[in-house]
Fold this sequence. Notes:
Layout: H1 10-13, H2 17-25, H3 30-39, H4 41-52, E1 62-65, E2 74-77, E3 80-81, H5 83-88, E4 98-103, E5 109-113, H6 114-130, E6 138-142, H7 147-158, E7 162-166, H8 172-182, E8 186-190, E9 193-195, E10 198-200, H9 202-211, E11 218-222, E12 234-236, H10 237-240, E13 253-254, E14 258-264, E15 272-277, H11 281-291, E16 300-303, H12 311-322, E17 325-329, H13 340-347, E18 352-354, H14 357-363, H15 369-372, E19 381-385, H16 391-401, E20 408-414, E21 419-423, E22 437-438, E23 444-447, E24 459-463, H17 478-485, E25 493-501, E26 507-512, E27 517-519, E28 522-524, H18 526-533, E29 539-549, E30 553-562, H19 570-584, E31 592-595, H20 609-617, H21 631-640
Amino acid sequence: MSNPIWFPSDAYTRGSHIEALLKHLGLDSYEALYRFSIEQSEAFWEATLQLLGLEWLTPYRQVLDTSQGPQWPRWFVGGQLNLAYNALHHARTRKDAPALIWEGEEGAVARLSYGELEAAVAQAAQALRALGIERGDRVGLFLPMLPETAISALAVAQIGAIFVPIFSGYAPEAAATRLQDAEARLVITADGFYRRGSRVDLLHNARRAAALSPSVEKLLVVRRFGDVALAPGEVAWDEQVLHQPKSAAYEPMDSMDPFMLIYTSGTTGRPKGTVHYHAGFPIKAAQDMAHLFDLRPHETLFWFTDMGWMMGPWAILGTLTIGGTLLLYEGAPDYPNPGRLWALCERHKVTHLGLSPTLVRALMPLGDEWVRQHDLSSLRMLGSTGEPWNLEPYLWFFRSVGQGRLPIINYSGGTEIGGGILGCTTWRPIKPMGFNTAVPGMHAEVLDSTGRPVREEVGELAVLAPWPGQTKGFWKAPERYLETYWQRFENIWVHGDWAMVDRDGHWVIQGRSDDTLKIAGKRVGPAEYESAAVEHPGVKEAAAIGIPHPVKGEVAVLFVVLRSDHTPSPDLEQAIAETVTRRLGKALKPERVLFVPDLPKTRNAKVMRRVIRAAFLGQPPGDLSALENPQAVEAIRQAAQ
């Protein structure tokens, strides 16, 4: 691995959540804290919850019960709480402190203090009860990032129901798949939203999705535009919610009672509904936000995300539980000009900015001048998640956006984790593109083919002990959950990522296990090929896959999106292949370099390599509902011919 480029300082360690936890536990170093967190897990979680200020309606009598095995842990046994109460309890002591800022793509802005947010959530909770929603009922949230999105999620949890966040860009059939599986009774949606200056008719898709879902009884519609007539079975948010009382009781929930079903796309078959509970995901989100990102009260987090990706609920629940301010943004990141994100940060004094590597790669070619036009002095932390980095965009993010002074908190876990397995702490140096720690409380290891922990060797990323936030299985599919994570080694969660940890305790993820290539007997992450390819000045983006070869076993095929000033040609194909070969060696030379206009991605900008591989090989591509650009799949099929 490379050398560190960022180092700890008093500005980041003094007054931090980690410093407070070290003092509370009487420990003298971050390394001692991490060891304590896995060796004395129960004491660690009790101390963490105490310092986060988590409040229980009924105290728990046991931190952890693993009598049903590590696959089915029970946390905080006997305890009762409500995540909405803990997200809004700052209204009791800091009712005028800013809780939520929203900006629409056209420039509209809304602000809610903690007191105002609690009142708005109470009104929505009363409205849900009036619509007949009861404890345990499922409610679909088919919404863009609006204030009502956060309000709805908290209100559903407040009354003990279960929300189902659905990506606002889904076609009706994809949304209906999730509503049907969850058997949702109500869908909260909007009449539309702005995207690149145009109105998106979300209500049309919500209506069609509801029509395909027999369990759905009503639509509750946020009138973003207000000029769309509602049909029978549809009620307007402003009419149903805004006249309700501004206080409501918090339903006491057992620690393991579910509050959210969030669906992830499977390689094959139907999407998986991961089940999350009141004393899990919200605690994990707040803990990660405290121990990795060090978000403090009075600071503002903005993560460019959608509610259908776990980072949406993560940002809402984690930020509010800690007592920070959350910025939500509705529109495109580069509209009406490439400076929109940086303008948002300047305008709302953002301290914590989270972007995916793919989004950084898309912003980087637009030029540094868009960054320099804006005062980003409020920024204290940069964050990233979703996929492995390439070096050039990582360094651009660090140097051009962070001015070489801000740490990039790289973060990797998943929907089923409820947060991160690996991350960065400002108490250790940070190396480019990697992770300087496993998240406190996560007993992570890299395992070889026999299940033995290894260093400086690529292996399976695994978690050896339970944690709060671990999914409570897949909705109505416990066998599928066990097959997905618990089949490889006995009583060990195998995450599906290839990873490596060096002698200094710094980690790197090579890619998904099913993405990773094995060329000439060596495991190679697709990111290594892609990082090498983008060193060529003509390459905008690249994606690498491995395909079977009768002699070599497996060879690499590289799909390349060119910059606008380059044209596909055999000479350019050869030049890109040579660039990769110089970086990786002759044994790892790509078998083919193919030019495509785009790579298949999710709305959150994650490149879907499994889809690329299936399309190239003429195999069924699995669930494509999360793709923003399904036309890219056909282009790959054509390139393979």
